[in-house]
Design goal:
The chain is of the alpha+beta class. The chain is built from 4 helices and 17 strands.
Length: 300
């Protein structure tokens, strides 16, 4: 083989190698594009599954399709990672408990119930807890209004319907009623609770003067009802012990002094008792002065 043929053979080998490298490069680009395209179409992230207090698990670097096949309820979170509980990593899963929040704000946790506080937590997700004492009160989920569950009658079965906030007191068949005064306790410091052992009935009588006082059930503190203002309507709220004094529309009050007259509380500016007193006192001073100085002119 002469040099010219050897040169041609060597050049052909280089060309074949370059062509192979080129083909491999193009194939790599195509495969990368396909992978990127697949990732763009089906991104990875974390999956919260088997969601529930004390049981939620999290698996990361999965696709939405993989997440949908895990125990329900499940939620796929693209691009997010799991938050391990105390650093426990059990294979692809994290936790031994709830550490996979599916919320970001408290607003997202609103359950539409006025009787709960709705909080988004980093581990438990949405937590909706009662904002009242459900052992003593029944709450209306629409308005948040509370109603005491017990009627303090030993012969009724007191039940709260949490769906409506309504309380029922169903008579207990065969109940004999109270035996001692203790059975009649109504948790109201403003009443004397007495048991009629003959009939089994309880009576609750006020231990204060209801005509002039308002009593706070929790501590029996008393507040006068009347503020002695004729232009207010005074009332007592027996449930809270609070007294209100509501202004009476159009009321002109009583005419007791010159100040009342100036304020317009005296109809047609009729002189008050105090004003008549001043007039009489002035006359007496004038008469006294006349007698003292012995003058005889007529008082005008």
């Amino acid at each position: 083989m002469d040099r010219k043929e050897a040169s041609r053979g060597s050049s052909g080998g280089v060309f074949l190698r370059n062509a192979t490298v080129l083909r491999l490069g193009v194939l790599t680009i195509i495969l990368s594009t396909m992978v990127m395209s697949a990732q763009a179409q089906d991104p990875t992230g974390s999956c919260c599954y088997n969601i529930g207090p004390g049981s939620t698990s999290c698996r990361q670097n999965v696709t939405a399709a993989t997440c949908s096949g895990l125990p329900v309820p499940n939620v796929f979170r693209p691009g997010q990672e799991c938050s391990p509980l105390n650093g426990n990593n059990q294979g692809p899963d994290f936790g031994n408990g709830p550490c996979c929040s599916t919320c970001t704000t408290n607003t997202a946790c609103n359950d539409g119930n006025a009787c709960t506080d709705d909080i988004c937590t980093s581990c438990d997700g949405c937590v909706n807890t009662n904002n009242f004492n459900d052992t003593t009160d029944c709450c209306d989920p629409f308005s948040g209004i509370l109603t005491p569950i017990t009627d303090f009658e030993i012969c009724t079965d007191d039940v709260c319907d949490s769906q409506t906030g309504q309380v029922s007191h169903t008579p207990i068949v065969g109940c004999a009623g109270c035996i001692t005064n203790t059975d009649c306790f109504d948790n109201n410091a403003c009443t004397n609770d007495t048991c009629n052992t003959t009939t089994g009935d309880c009576s609750h009588t006020a231990n204060f003067n209801e005509a002039i006082q308002c009593c706070t059930p929790g501590n029996s503190s008393l507040t006068p009802i009347d503020d002695f203002d004729p232009c207010t309507d005074d009332s007592c709220d027996a449930q809270t012990g609070q007294v209100s004094h509501t202004p009476i529309a159009g009321c002109v009050g009583e005419c007791k002094s010159i100040a009342d007259a100036i304020a317009g509380n005296c109809p047609q500016n009729i002189p008050t008792v105090s004003e008549w007193g001043l007039v009489v006192l002035s006359l007496l001073l004038l008469i006294g002065g006349k007698l003292y100085f012995g003058r005889s002119h007529v008082i005008v």
